[in-house]
């Protein structure tokens, strides 16, 4: 495979730079299928065979888990431990055990062992690994050898099947999902897998009703969003016995008992004034209600706190009677007590700094203004350890919290408050200077998505590897380990929960001695592959105890170039980003040192590639491995993101980042999906003015509507109406793309910007944006009530709306979409919201893409002359300290 190379520095130009858009198919191209075998057999391909995380494709299970669930940073692992260490490329696996599948993809098959008489899943008696396509059966089927520890086991009677002399496979191979597919769900009935009897899921909504939250409009808007989520049955298990609790808090705690409402009784409100020693006055049967009862409790909360539209109008005409204090930490403690017996998921919406009850906070050092890196690093540290402790206590009772912070000001100490969701498997969402007109739709969407995503409760995850591999470190973002053992405790896993684990080669991998033949479909040949298996024990939304097993295989190689050839750039970037963000947020590493470590790690990998994998010797050439050719621009974009951008001495700087925004960005990266991290590293920008005729409509179905995967499983017939909406091809993230007669849409998973050039036709602009008040512009398709705003627009406007709707649906972290008009009154919008996303431009005290590549090239050549690889590895490894 010929490497990518750049000509001499004097001729380096931005138009020649590798970009993610270089691997995009033309707009409107039908989706293609992908399975692991395709990457291993297409030797002559000049492009990476692994689809990017934001690409449109259909992932097929061919005996190795689909990319939706697991991605290795490389799918070819160097057998020699020393060579692997010196490679400079991280070896890690990114896992999303309960990720949503794409349209047309087969669901994870279910194997039912709930009946006691049928035993349990087939497992190795030594390492307790689960059956997978790598198990090798022998002695006529009476024994099997585990590919995770090489132990030879006796096949239990209930799992015995003779081996076919013709194929060498078990006679029941086509019927045993766990022996031919990489992913499987076991339903189990044995009490050995249960801490307590499985039960339906429990949810709790807690809302800030202090005067600040009410006057900003947060309380009224959030309570209606809560009502919508419950009334629409968005909560998983709503129709199968799920229970819901409602509470509010200001200087005290309010609980609502709606048990008798179905018989005509009124809702009873219980008030707890002692927030220094909070408690739950209602038992579980009274606190946790049916969805119908919960709606009555919500209505009672609306009436109690005056959150109806009429009451809100009266509020504008006079001062509020609500207390100004907020007892958020006391609410967290009450939530822990409520979940003591059942566990579950809580959604907490707050707009005020905790000023009452336990763990009160104060504005630290001027709040939003950083004043330089050293001062800002001090503000990124937690103000007190109480919130981390509360988060750990929530995790111990199998409870998880998603925290929605929507202050009316620009500071709420997100760095401290964010410790609670981080410690218990939740997420933090920040809506700075909340305005219900501008931010209401984002809050509603984020809350509804979060409410609809829980998939697993009381979960415990363990990762096992084949001989020679070991999990050496973890950068898991928002989960923790129990006090004993190697398991990862996840009170609640949702569809977006992503875990990253670093893997080391501890001993020489056994050579692959296969000689042709079918390598897939659950054949014994997979026994020789390197293997990583994750098993998650959990209770599903129907109250059943289950085990979800994902097994991924990677080839072993003695050729270092193969490791680079089969690298996954998105998985690599995601792992590097998560490790760096954890080092800053938890380990106390400065973001400038973290940025330096990211650059050094990139240069180190390219140095190894140049030295050991190429024959080119001209110093004027920058040689990049084909699969990782866009890694430099992704690392540049990450360094320029709000998480790692250089600290501004003054908030008057156009690209200044507040402490809360930086804390939110770091927290977001630590728990984001791979596709979201990829968008953070290199945002996507589309021209929606001259829209391709194939954009904004469903992608065409495949010419062959059926496919049989290599494990023998037939896919469903393709339904053209359920194909994803086609997106336009992306543009380079540079100022040269900002043409005055164009409208551009940009998103980086946290932020969406619609940019209007100064010469855009007014009628075209009005099809995309709407004026909702004096000087207030919003994106029609994104705004609350978008159905009415997009009703009478043209066919092109409707296609643009579909594009925006698709982007919004895929990004649960999007907040505050901005409309930026070039040369509009009140200058600064373009500099503040758009320019920081143009990662290829130099910007304020940052590299441009061209200069960053030159910097990478210079470091590579310095390493070639000085052989400084070992010291540079130490620069990267320092990110482990303190985490």
TrEMBL record:
Superkingdom assignment: Eukaryota
Q: Which Gene3D superfamilies match?
A: beta-sandwich domain of Sec23/24, Sec23/Sec24 helical domain, Severin, von Willebrand factor, type A domain, Zn-finger domain of Sec23/24
Indicate the segments forming the Zinc finger Sec23/Sec24-type domain, all copies: 121-158
Q: Where is the composition biased (Polar residues)?
A: 1-16
Domain Sec23/Sec24 helical stretches: 568-676
Q: Where is the Sec23/Sec24 trunk domain?
A: 198-447
Region annotation (Disordered) maps to 1-30
Q: What GO biological process, any one, is recorded here?
A: intracellular protein transport
Q: Where is the Sec23/Sec24 beta-sandwich domain?
A: 456-553
- MF term (GO), any: zinc ion binding
Which UniProt keywords are given for this protein, alphabetically ordered?
Answer: Protein transport, Transport
Q: Which GO terms describe its cellular component?
A: COPII vesicle coat; endoplasmic reticulum exit site
* Matching InterPro entries: ADF-H/Gelsolin-like_dom_sf (IPR029006), Beta-sandwich_Sec23_24 (IPR012990), Gelsolin-like_dom_sf (IPR036180), Sec23/24_helical_dom (IPR006900), Sec23/24_helical_dom_sf (IPR036175), Sec23/24_trunk_dom (IPR006896), SEC23_SEC24_subfamily (IPR050550), vWFA_dom_sf (IPR036465)
**Similarity remark:** Belongs to the SEC23/SEC24 family. SEC24 subfamily.
- Designated name of the protein: Protein transport protein Sec24-like CEF
Q: Please name the source species.
A: Gracilariopsis chorda
């Amino acid at each position: 495979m010929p490497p990518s190379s750049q000509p001499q520095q004097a001729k380096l130009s931005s138009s020649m730079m590798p970009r993610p858009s270089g691997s995009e198919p033309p707009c409107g191209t039908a989706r293609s299928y992908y399975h692991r075998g395709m990457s291993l057999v297409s030797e002559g391909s000049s492009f990476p065979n692994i689809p990017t995380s934001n690409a449109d494709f259909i992932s097929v299970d061919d005996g190795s888990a689909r990319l939706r669930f697991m991605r290795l940073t490389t799918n070819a692992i160097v057998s020699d431990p020393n060579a692997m260490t010196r490679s400079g490329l991280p070896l890690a696996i990114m896992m999303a055990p309960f990720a949503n599948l794409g349209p047309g993809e087969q669901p994870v098959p279910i194997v039912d062992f709930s009946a006691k008489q049928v035993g349990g899943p087939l497992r190795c008696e030594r390492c307790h690994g689960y059956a997978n396509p790598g198990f090798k059966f022998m002695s006529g089927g009476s024994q099997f050898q585990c590919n995770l520890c090489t132990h030879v086991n006796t096949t239990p009677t209930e799992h015995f099947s003779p081996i076919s002399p013709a194929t060498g496979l078990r006679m029941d191979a086509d019927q045993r999902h766990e022996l031919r597919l990489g992913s499987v769900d076991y339903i189990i009935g044995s009490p050995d897998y249960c801490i307590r009897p499985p039960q339906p899921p429990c949810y709790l909504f807690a809302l800030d009703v202090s005067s600040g939250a009410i006057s900003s409009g947060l309380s009224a808007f959030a309570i209606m969003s809560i009502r919508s989520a419950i009334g629409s049955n968005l909560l998983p298990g709503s129709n199968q016995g799920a229970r819901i609790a409602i509470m509010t808090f200001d200087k005290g705690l309010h609980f609502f008992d709606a048990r008798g409402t179905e018989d005509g009784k009124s809702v009873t409100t219980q008030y707890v004034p002692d927030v220094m020693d909070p408690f739950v006055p209602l038992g579980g049967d009274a606190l946790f209600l049916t969805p119908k009862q919960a709606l009555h409790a919500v209505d009672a909360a609306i009436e109690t706190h005056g959150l109806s539209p009429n009451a809100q109008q009266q509020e504008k005409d006079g001062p509020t009677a609500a207390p100004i204090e907020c007892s958020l930490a006391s609410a967290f403690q009450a939530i822990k007590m409520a979940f003591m017996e059942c566990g579950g998921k809580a959604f907490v919406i707050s707009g005020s700094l905790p000023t009452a009850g336990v763990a009160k906070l104060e504005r630290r050092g001027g709040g939003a203004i950083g004043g330089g890196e050293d001062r800002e690093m001090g503000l990124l540290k937690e103000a007190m350890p109480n919130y981390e402790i509360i988060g750990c206590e929530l995790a111990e009772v199998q409870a998880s919290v998603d925290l929605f912070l929507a202050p009316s000001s620009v500071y709420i100490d997100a760095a401290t408050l964010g410790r609670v969701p981080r410690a218990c498997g939740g997420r933090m969402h920040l809506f700075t200077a909340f305005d219900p007109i501008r931010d209401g739709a984002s809050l509603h969407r984020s809350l509804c998505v979060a409410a609809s995503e829980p998939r697993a409760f009381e979960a415990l995850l363990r990762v096992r590897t084949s001989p020679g591999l070991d999990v050496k470190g973890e950068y898991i973002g928002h989960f923790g380990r129990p006090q004993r053992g190697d398991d990862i405790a996840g009170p609640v896993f949702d569809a977006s929960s992503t875990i990253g684990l670093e893997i080391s080669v501890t001993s020489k991998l056994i050579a692959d001695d296969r000689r042709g033949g079918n390598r897939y479909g659950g054949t014994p040949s997979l026994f020789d592959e390197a293997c990583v298996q994750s098993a998650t024990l959990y209770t599903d939304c129907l109250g059943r105890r289950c085990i979800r097993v994902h097994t991924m295989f990677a080839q072993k190689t003695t050729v270092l170039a193969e490791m680079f050839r089969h690298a996954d750039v998105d998985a690599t970037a995601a792992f590097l980003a998560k490790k760096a963000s954890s080092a800053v947020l938890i380990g106390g590493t400065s973001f400038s040192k973290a940025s330096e470590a990211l650059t050094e790690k990139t240069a180190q990998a390219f140095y190894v590639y140049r030295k050991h994998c190429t024959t080119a010797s001209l110093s004027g050439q920058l040689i990049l491995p084909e699969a990782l050719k866009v890694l430099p621009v992704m690392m540049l974009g990450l360094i320029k993101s709000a998480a790692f951008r250089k600290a501004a001495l003054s908030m008057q700087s156009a690209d200044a980042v507040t402490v809360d925004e930086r804390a939110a960005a770091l927290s977001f990266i630590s728990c984001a999906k791979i596709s979201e991290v990829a968008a953070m590293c290199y945002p996507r920008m589309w021209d929606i003015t001259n829209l391709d005729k194939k954009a904004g409509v469903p992608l065409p179905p495949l010419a062959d509507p059926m496919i049989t995967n290599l494990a023998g499983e037939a896919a469903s017939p393709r339904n053209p109406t359920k194909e994803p909406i086609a997106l336009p091809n992306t543009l380079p993230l540079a100022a040269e793309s900002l043409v005055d007669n164009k409208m551009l849409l940009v998103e980086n998973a946290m932020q969406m910007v619609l940019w209007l050039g100064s010469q855009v036709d007014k009628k075209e602009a009005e099809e995309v944006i709407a004026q909702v008040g004096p000087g207030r512009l919003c994106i029609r398709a994104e705004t609350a009530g978008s159905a009415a705003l997009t009703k009478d627009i043209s066919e092109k406007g409707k296609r643009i709306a579909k594009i925006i709707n698709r982007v919004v649906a895929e990004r649960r972290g999007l907040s505050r979409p901005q409309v930026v008009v070039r040369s509009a009154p009140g200058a600064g919008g373009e500099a503040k919201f758009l320019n920081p996303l143009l990662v290829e431009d130099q910007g304020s005290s940052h590299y441009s893409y061209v200069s960053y590549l030159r910097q990478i090239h210079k470091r590579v050549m310095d390493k070639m002359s000085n052989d400084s690889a070992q010291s540079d590895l130490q620069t990267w490894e320092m990110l482990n300290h303190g985490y």
